[in-house]
Amino acid sequence: MNEKNILVVGIFVVDLSFKANKLPSPGETIIGENYIIGPGGKGSNQAVAISRAGGKVSLIARIGDDHFANIGLNLYQEENVNTEGLIIAKGENTGSAAISVDKNGMNSIIVVPGAASGIDKSLIEEKIELFNNSSLLLTGYEIPLEVTNHSLKLAKKKGHYPEAIGLLENLNQMQVKNKKTIVNLLLQYIKEQQNIGKEKNK
Q1: In terms of residue numbers, what domain contains 82?
Q2: Interval 61-109: pLDDT, tens
Q3: Residue 38: φ, ψ to 5°
Q4: Residue 97, phi-psi category: left (phi > 0), alpha (psi -120 to 50), beta (remainder)
Q5: Interval 34-50: pLDDT, tens
Q6: What does the alpha-carbon distance between residue 67 and residue 166 come to, in Å, rounded to a whole number?
Q7: Pairing of the two strands 34-40 and 94-101
Q8: Of 77, 132, 147, 152, whose CA is between 20 and 30 Å from 124?
Q9: What is the largest CA-CA distance in the chain?
Q10: Sequence-ordered list of residues with C-beta below 8 angstroms from that of 133, at least 6 positions apart, any chain
Q11: What's the predicted TM-score (pTM) here?
Q12: Per the structure, how many domains does the chain have?
């Protein structure tokens, strides 16, 4: 187990964000002001943020073999995110989200998970080596609940500290915005837990 490696299990989708003065009512068509096409998915965003903050991170996610998938692959190459955990589903579309945002920041979102919806426990098992080589798992509920629970159980069995997710949530509630500070606190937490384990084994 490498105490400096972080593993994320989540999804990648491409966000199609549209900005307009107001959100359309049912059946209404309005003229927007701008649109942005870019990477999304909470797990993917977390992996990129960890890497930018100086952490070594791997992402387990399921994507298609289309143009949208290339957006993710190019992103991870640029951001130094380990892609050994990516599952490329032949003949399937990568997930996408249509996000409409009004002038006040209110939004409405339609998410089509696409290939991401096909992730299951067997695919997680195929990536067991990534669990062996990491010390912290970060996951959430954008993937099927049974996959989240299975990932947490595997992490605990391998000596990870999934309870550190609670620490991350607390930091968010405390409005700690600096990503490097968050990663450093998580790594400090891991080190403290390992020291506690060593004391217990004496």
Answers
A1: 5-200
A2: 999 999 999 999 999 999 999 999 999 999 999 999 999 999 999 999 9
A3: -160, 175
A4: beta
A5: 999 999 999 999 999 99
A6: 36
A7: unpaired
A8: 77
A9: 69
A10: 1, 2, 5, 58
A11: 0.77
A12: 1
